[in-house]
Design goal:
single chain; 87 residues; little secondary structure; 5% strand; elongated
Length: 87
């Protein structure tokens, strides 16, 4: 039995939905290509990094921290999140 769902269109029954499921075949690929070249740094003073006990207080989701106290640094960060919904 199909019915309209506000903002989503027609719903489908569980039998039809089961044939449309992505199942367990999951594939991820992430490629990060960065280059640092022809840089120079001299007579530099860098700072310090600190994370206190309350740094993530009240955080939600997937908090990430990237810290750098150096010079001429390439930082690449990537995250793949798989979410699986089960009845």
């Amino acid at each position: 039995m199909s019915r309209d769902v506000d903002g989503l269109g027609h719903s489908v029954d569980s039998t039809t939905l089961a044939t449309l499921s992505g199942g367990t075949e999951v594939s991820e690929k992430m490629t990060l290509n960065g280059t640092v070249s022809n840089n120079s740094a001299s007579h530099l003073v860098t700072g310090s990094n600190a994370i206190s006990g309350d740094s993530f207080s009240g955080a939600a989701g997937l908090p990430m921290v990237i810290q750098n106290t150096g010079n001429n640094v390439l930082i690449q960060n990537a995250t793949i999140v798989n979410v699986q919904f089960q009845p």
